[in-house]
Amino acid sequence: MLLVLVATVAITSCKKDQGRSDATGWKYGDQEWGGFEKADFQDQLTGPNLVIIPGGTFTMGQTGEDVTFEWDNVPRRVTVTSFYMDETEVSNINYREYLYDLSRYYGATVPEVYRNALPDTLVWREELAFNEPLVQTYLRFPAFDDYPVVGVNWEQANDYCTWRSNKVNEMILIEKGILNPNPEQKGSDVFDTKAYLAGQYEGSVRKGLEGSDGEPRRVRFEDGIMLPEYRLPTEAEWEYAALALQGNAAENGDELITDRRIYPWAGNTARYKIRDKYQGRMLANFKRGRGDYMGVSANLNDQAAVPGNVRANYPNDFGLYNMGGNVSEWVKDVYRPMTTQDARDVENQDLNPFRGNQFKELVVDEDGKPVAKDSLGRLQYRMVADSTLEDRRNYRKSDLRNYGDGDDPETVSYDYGKHSLINDESRVIKGGSWSDRLYWLQPGTRRFFPQDAASNTIGFRCAMIRIGGANPDNPLGDGNEFKARKKKTKRRYN
Description:
19% of the residues lie in helices and 11% in strands.
């Protein structure tokens, strides 16, 4: 009896007190009080290669002279919430790791998945140039491991983001001792974050989290352990991150001197100004003039005739490398010329502006549970039916890529192939490349490219939302004075 009592006291004392509800006063995580659990959540983890980009307001749009007379990026004031951005462009070694996994997972069951993910290495061929060695070496040879992957279209870039999201979350569960490494995953039995949370992936379980009843259980979304999805950044996010206006702040950091920049660095030239041995060197990898991709052999200006190392050149004031030059980058947005009419529409969409929403819903059975996952191990989704949106006030269509096109006589209707090359599969690319003039290195410039096409000048980097407070040093979003007052007046339960 005494041993049982001691053991019970020991187990009870080891169980972490989750506190009480400030709405009802009931104990969290105690079966005698209902068992509702509250996660011991401190802050969102920072995923591999990500850098926090604190949100804020900025003037999005053209900053220099519009030499092309496109008028497709009218300056307007918007706010971008905090998010994470890749420190570098996705490199060849990163993408080859992805290809290796696809071959392992689906090579024997769905081989077309691997084939469809292969970059188009033939983008290096030119009719009047000898670039054939790059066709053979740029993606595969280890000398190019840390160079940005190219020849990847927008659709392939999105698929890479999906793989990376699942791979990172699987790594988190393994490092927390919840799952064992499982290199034998095949076909539909491949780790997928959403399938795991829905109970449709088991894996090699090592241990579960302790539930309120003392029994092990699966990780839930509410535990805050796994990360949100890696994805392509929106155009607004990319432009905000490229400008890195925090570099314009006064020394005390209290206020901005100016919120305008021409390039991803301060000043109006592309040369390094500090008076040391690097003075006068180029700050980015771009084409300086006709036939000049890298400078004179005795004094190379950017060390790269084609894309360079993803960590070459100085990072901007957010710590991001090559936000101007090296390769242009895919973003999520569908392209439309930014007209004055569009600028007025933005007045109602000035928080996280984005064009390209396609709202989907999880496919469920008659009991409301997700139907069986597909052959790739992923849950199944479908477009939301417009007929179900009649009573909604915030949106009436699920596919909003062509929002506003032809809705009234004053707006433009794009007739692809006849009057325009713009359609719903035209995606924005940002930043200049190794083959572009300095003009295109301005974050305010924009171009478009078909989402199923690839180029030797286009790569990509990933982004991720920031959940919770805007400042990672203070995730609750409380000021110090408020937190002190809250602690002093907190109600105690004895």
